[in-house]
Design brief:
Helix content is 0%, strand content 29%. By secondary structure, it is mainly beta. It has 2 domains: 101 residues, Hexapeptide repeat proteins (UDP N-Acetylglucosamine Acyltransferase, domain 1, 3 Solenoid); 108 residues, UDP N-Acetylglucosamine Acyltransferase, domain 1.
Length: 248
């Protein structure tokens, strides 16, 4: 009994045997040593590297949906999703078309990675994280459970975001057409850290090796190597020397 639908033009390396009830689209490519769980959907043209694990119910290469009044989702022709070698993609993860995932990346259960997103090598995307469109995430980053990364954001290498960090790109809170001119995501420079349940407002910058303390609301840029605390967050002291990236 046939339990999976695999396009004739799909190319699966020798030894790759998808789980039950998978759908693999035309011209998709899956590298050697990869393990595909049950009920996985891989859309046409997707390229998956070697030794990649994709768990049950994941969807790779999904086309975006556009609501009638969407502010940031555009009609466009997207390149197929690309996933590098040695990645782990968790249960019910959704990765949209136009996403490029580096090597040895972990994307945990129930996370979403939107279109036009790049994620560098060795980065961890935790459980339930939402990465919106037009984001760039560097290498060796860690976004813990339930982080929300707004569209048009950029994280440099070795950025850390604790659970439930929230970010925004719209200072007009969805009102007036003027807002369409000013959408701007957040920026976290190399080694920046953002503590538990903090909020970063549109366009704000977390400096290199800066630390935004737990529960803070960042309404102004956080300077390099400074700790900011509170709502609104204010500089309280330097980051301890032993915590700087150069001393790790």
């Amino acid at each position: 009994m046939q339990t999976s639908a695999i396009a004739k033009s799909a190319r699966l390396a020798g030894g790759v045997e998808p789980g039950q009830f998978c759908v693999i689209g035309e011209d998709a490519k899956i590298g050697s040593g990869s393990v595909i769980g049950a009920h996985v959907v891989i859309h046409p043209g997707v390229v998956i590297g070697s030794n990649v694990r994709i768990d049950d119910g994941a969807v790779i290469g999904k086309q975006p949906m556009r609501a009638a009044y969407s502010a940031v989702t555009k009609e466009q022709q997207l390149e197929p999703t690309r996933i590098g070698d040695d990645c782990i993609i968790g249960t019910h993860v959704i990765i949209y078309a136009g996403a490029v995932i580096g090597q040895k990346v972990l994307i945990a259960d129930l996370s979403t990675v939107r279109e036009n997103v790049s994620i560098g090598d060795f980065t961890i995307i935790g459980r339930g994280v939402a990465v919106e469109n037009y984001c760039k995430i560097g290498s060796y980053c860690k976004l813990e459970t339930n982080v929300y990364l707004t569209a048009y954001s950029e994280l440099a290498d070795r950025v850390f975001m604790a659970p439930c960090v929230a970010t925004s790109n719209d200072n007009y809170v969805g009102r007036t057409r003027e807002r369409f001119k000013h959408f701007k995501g957040i920026t976290v420079k190399r080694g920046g850290r953002v503590g538990l349940n903090s909020t970063i407002l549109p366009g704000k910058v977390v400096g290199e090796d800066a630390l935004v303390a737990a529960g803070s609301v960042l309404t102004k840029d956080a300077p390099d190597r400074k700790i900011v605390v509170g709502s609104p967050a204010k500089v309280v002291r330097d980051v301890p020397v032993e915590q700087l990236l150069e001393n790790q």
